[in-house]
Amino acid sequence: MALSRPLARLARCPQNLAALQAPVHQRRHFASPPVTQNATGSKGPTAMVLLNMGGPSTTDEVGDFLSRLFADGDLIPLGRLQGYLGPLISRRRTPKIQKQYAAIGGGSPIRRWSEYQAAEMCKLLDKMSPETAPHKPYVAFRYAAPLTEDTYAQMLEDGFGQGRGGRAVAFTQYPQYSCSTTGSSLNELWKWRNRLEGKRGSGEVDPQGAIKWSVIDRWPVHPGLVEAFAQNIEARLAEYPPERRDSAVLLFSAHSLPMSVVNRGDPYPAEVSATVYAVMQRMGMRNPYRLVWQSQVGPSAWLGAQTADAVHEFIKKGQKDLVLVPIAFTSDHIETLYELDQEIIGETGLDSVKRVESLNGSPVFIQALADLAKSHLESGISCSPQMSLRCPGCTSERCLEQKKFFAAQQAQL
Ligand code: FES
Questions:
Q1: Which one, out of 68, 195, 215, 359, has a CA that is 20 to 30 A from the CA of 186?
Q2: What is its EC number (predicted)?
């Protein structure tokens, strides 16, 4: 039987293969330089793993990206027909989506931005939290390279886990928690943790020697995040003449959710609303605003009002100064660069309809990431109390086991 990709990657080096084939108690020494886990007076090194959905870096990667995306029942619940409908929809959509990526320069910038944010955050953390240094940056995407399994395998190659212990933080880059996004990424991380380090730490690897995980699972109203959004909004508002500046309507736009997910009790709509309200408070409630939702796919009911409809209706009513604010993603991606910029704003033909820059390389934002990470490491908690609560309508065994696993990591920290 062919090895799965991460296992194949670990096995590429003969010494690694020997390590994989060795009895558990002998699986201690991989060929890559070991990470020192027990330096006197140090809790480091610490792996900082930024989780996100990811995007295809080239148009050739679009097909694989879409097939993973539509196979994920946590993100797009298609029920028992997932295995049939998922590949069908992704195959049908691939040529259209490839054209969209071609129109934004041939691929998504999300990997570049995520790797930059992770590296810059770790540089700050090394200074701010020397006791948990060095902080090693990783990115784990759900649907595009670097995939969760490849990042996990890389961490093992770098000397974390596999009998050597070590500390890792799964840091969601979705500030507002949804079971479709952060939940899905954590389900995937838990799955690969079991496959690569033994089932719930009680199988192939002694729990003491497995990677000790904690999770930053949500941060919708972190002051640094709020400040970074507010500064970018103020910069865009400054482009309007002073007499029109305070009456421009702010349209906060977040990725929508199917109503089946909302009605299951997903926390995302409430947490996105919390971010919007915190940003508006920071800005002195000067401008009128609405929260609207974008990127609906397929014929089922999704959370609205839809961003495109809202822009259209406001303009029809005579409100032409509109500022779109992407509020639920931390870097540019197809939904900002194509859907908002080219489709929605482009089609208005109006210079008075603008979009706020995404957080991308904002130093305020990267400082916020480092502040969050430092507080998390100091807190000694494995995940927030909120993460252990399942949605009232959740029937997923995967959710249940994943939440149990991350909560139980508390005993290891
Ligand atoms: Fe929300 Fe399972 S769907 S916890």
A1: 359
A2: 4.98.1.1
Ligand 1 atom with the shortest distance to the CA of 74: 3
Residue 163: the pLDDT is 82
The reply to whether 222 belongs to the active site is yes
- Give the integer Cα–Cα distance in Å for 219 and 197: 29
Give, to the nearest 10 degrees, the angle between helix 110-128 and helix 363-379. 60
Q: What is the pLDDT of residues 36-62, one digit of tens each?
A: 554 333 477 999 999 999 999 999 999
Is ligand 1 within 6 A of the CB of residue 257? no
Whole-number pLDDT of residue 199 = 62
pLDDT at position 17 over 50: no
**Exposure string for 314-350, b = 16+ CB within 10 A, e = fewer:** bbeeebebbbbbbbbbbbbbbbbbbbbbeebbeeeee
Query: Which domains occur in the chain, in start order?
Result: 10-55+108-218+381-412 (3.40.50.1400), 59-103 (no CATH), 223-355 (3.40.50.1400)
Whether ligand 1 lies within 6 angstroms of the CB of 398 is answered as: no
Atom 4 in ligand 1: which residue has the minimum CA distance? Answer: 390
Average pLDDT for 351-362: 97
Does ligand 1 lie within 6 Å of residue 264's CB atom? yes
Residues 6+ apart with CB under 8 A from 38: none
Report yes or no: 35 and 45 within 8 Å, Cβ to Cβ. Answer: yes
pTM (predicted TM-score)? 0.89
Atom 3 of ligand 1, nearest CA residue: 394
